[in-house]
Amino acid sequence: MKNRGITTSKIKNNAPAIPVLVWVGFFAGVPLVFVLVISFLTRDSLGIIVLEFSTENYRRIFEPVYLKIFFNSFLLAGLTGVVTLVIGYPVAYITSKLKGRQRTLTIGLIMLPFWISSLLRTYGWRILLDYKGIINNILTGLGITNEPVTMLGTFAASLVGTAYMLIPFMIIAVFNSVDKLDRSLLEASYDLGAGKLKTFRNITLRLTLPGIAGGFTLVFIPALGLFFISDILGGGQTVYLGNKINELIGRGRNKPLAAAMSIAMVLFITLVIYIYTKVSKEEVGGLL
Amino acid sequence: MRISKFKVCVSLLLSALMLFSLTACAGNKKEEINLMTWADFIPREIISQFEEETGIKVNYKDVTSNEDMQELLTASPDQYDLAVVTDYMVEILRQNGNIGKLDKDKLPNFGNINPAFQSKYYDANNEYSIPYAVSTAFLLVNQKAVSELGADPIKSYADLWQEELKNNIVVIDWSVEIMGLVLKTLGYEYNETDPAKVAQARDKLLALRHNIVRFETNTPEDSLISGEAVAGFMYSNQALKGIAASNDLEAVFPAEGFPMYIDSFVMSAQSPNPEATYKFLNYVMSGEVSARISEITKFTNTNSKSAEFLSEDFLGNPILNMSAEVASRASFYINVDAVLDKYSQIYDEFKLK
Q1: Pairwise CB contact (< 8 Å): A19 & B68
Q2: Higher pLDDT residue, A15 or B123?
Q3: Whole-complex ipTM
Q4: Are the beta carbons of B306 and B288 closer than 8 angstroms?
Q5: Alpha-carbon distance A159 to A230, whole Å?
Q6: A-chain residues near B7 (CB < 8 A)
């Protein structure tokens, strides 16, 4: 009787969450179950999924070629995280110190690119980086190089494109935690004789670590899936998870293998999020 | 208490609404046909004119690949009437029962179709498909730039392996095409399954890696126009664009052979508007309409009655109208499903090298 009372009141309290849960359950949960089931099935020669249990797809992931694809993707995603952090952290820090209009304007400018199609923006980079593009025109025009430099079709071009696309996430995440920083702690640190660098390392950096971890997660995960950037800017020179899965679903006619690779990717991302929650909890918990 | 009950009610209502919004769909019964193929593959002006003349509305769905069309025809066969797919996909759709036999009595213009593009392996008796456009893939070369690099002129695939061409070749980004190129270079047929020959092709392919500057399926001709690459393996419509943009570029039909693609109309087995669909098919098979389509899309014409409506330029173009000698070297990619997995893996290894 008592227990029932608690459950009904629990349901009542959480009622506003029900639509969200139904929504998420329907649009994220059900498809994920589909993907999981398909990953254990096989397909016929015409690409039609056949109801026949198999773990072959998971075994194939461990073939050297596919392991290399995983490694490649994580390298790109990890480096994207590092690049966006190095550029995004100072931007977020300075933005948080701005006041009033300047601050609103800066945040507005950071978010502005989201109003334009990401595909369009990627093609914009192509105009800049092309062999006969704007940057090469400037370089050869000023006589810095004699021949245009091949920039498109390189790993660096993919990295630039992915980092550019995702940097707002990093800035906003770091901004939120820098903004909440209790400035009196900084003053206390200075009063106790710490220099600027030491204060930054011991106070600012530590207190904003959850923001950094959050930003890193927000950048790392989508970076694994932005296959069109490596196609458009990377010149298809290497293979990433996103491209491979995209190919297997379409012309590769192997949805079960694509599903298995997706599940492996989801597992890895879960691990990243687990580490993130650990990091952010420990830091916050340790300080409060 | 009241509020929380209210809250529960509202949230349940919202949940229900969200689920119902998924199934909302409306239908009306005006004469129309649902067509799908690549964007602009059938020119807008042709479709508008058909709509004006017949009052039948054409709903054109853009897709990006044959596999997308297979997916749509499998998932909702009663939503589509017509698709234009490539040769090998006709075979797959036929085997899976996605497409139906055409009623020739309703297609008086069927006789206009050039027999040279009919009776192919995927539809030996011409029951399921109507050839719409023909294309090929071959090499587009800037011979001047090739000699500036100190390399010999490119006349065949084998010439692509010259060391001087490092980082100077662009290719279509697809395993079957590139493995096909290598197999032809070695004197084998497309989609070879013999493990020894495939292994030999793999080694040969890996040796080409350093020469590839870009893998590009959509606009490979741009790399040649900009000077980033001196040679490229690409589709005929792309090569034509390149040649139109730069006088330095020329088409090379490799001595070893090259692929040919026939894109054909196929009708869904559960076509909801067959009568209107036949009217449309008959319309595009008239010599005059067919000629206009070819002039716009720059694909080889498949209609025997179109010559009188085609321009001199079109008829004299060696890419769109290959000589018998050149045409004899063209062949189809058949049996793709038998090699896809293996080739794809070799291709990944090639790219990751």
Answers
A1: no
A2: B123
A3: 0.82
A4: yes
A5: 8
A6: 12, 15-16
Give the nearest partner residue to A153 out of B19, B214, B227, using CB atoms: B214
Burial of B155: CB neighbours in 10 Å, binned 0-12, 13-18, 19+:
middle
- Give CA A234 to chain center in angstroms: 18
Give the C-alpha separation, A174 to A92, whole Å. Answer: 6
Q: Tokens at residue B131, please?
A: 């050839």
Greatest alpha-carbon span in chain A: 85
pLDDT tens digit string along B110-164?
999 999 999 999 999 999 999 999 999 999 999 999 999 999 999 999 999 999 9
The CATH number of the domain covering residues in A63-287:
1.10.3720.10
pTM: 0.84
Q: Would you list the domain boundaries of chain A?
A: 63-287
What six digits make up the tokens of A185?
């702690």
Which candidate from A22, A26, A132 shows the least CB-CB separation from B226? Answer: A132
User: Tens of pLDDT along A155-196?
Assistant: 999 999 999 999 999 999 999 999 888 888 888 888 888 888
* Dihedral class, residue B46 (left if φ above 0, else alpha if ψ from -120 to 50, else beta): alpha
Q: ∠A171-A176-A181 over CA atoms, to 5°?
A: 120
The residues, any chain, with a CB within 8 Å of residue B211's CB and separated by 6 or more, are: B160, B161, B162, B165, B166, B167, B168, B169
User: From the list B15, B174, B217, which residue is nearest A19 (CB)?
Assistant: B15
Query: In chain A, which among 215-254 make CB contacts under 8 A with chain B?
Result: 231, 235-239, 244, 247, 250-254
Strand partners, B129: B266
For A45, the closest of B173, B337, B348 (CB atoms) is B337
Q: Which domains does chain B have, with CATH numbers?
A: 30-135+261-321 (3.40.190.10), 136-259+330-352 (3.40.190.10)
pLDDT at B26: 44
Of A132, A150, A231, the CB nearest to B213: A150
Tell me the nearest-neighbour CA distance from B159 into chain A, angstroms.
22
Chain A residues in contact with B228 (beta carbon < 8 A): 131-132, 148, 150, 152
Top-ranked range on mean pLDDT: pick from A114-128, A215-229, B192-206, B327-341: B192-206
Determine which helix (DSSP H) or strand (DSSP E) holds A114, and give its type and residue range.
none
Upper half-sphere CA count for residue A36 (Cβ side, 13 Å): 8
Angular region, B191: left φ>0, alpha ψ -120 to 50, beta rest:
left
CB contact under 8 A, B351 and A247: no
**Interface contact A250-B227, CB threshold 8 A:** no
Q: How near does any CA of chain A get to the CA of B11, in Å?
A: 6
Query: Which residues, listed in sequence order, are joined to residue B32 by a DSSP beta bridge?
Result: B57
Chain A residues touching residue B246 (CB < 8 angstroms): none
Q: Is pLDDT at B244 greater than 80 in this prediction?
A: yes
Residues of B with CB under 8 A from a CB of A: 4-5, 7-8, 11-12, 14-15, 18-19, 65-68, 70, 74, 92, 95-96, 167, 173-174, 212-217, 223, 226-228, 337-338, 340-341, 344-345, 348-349, 351-352
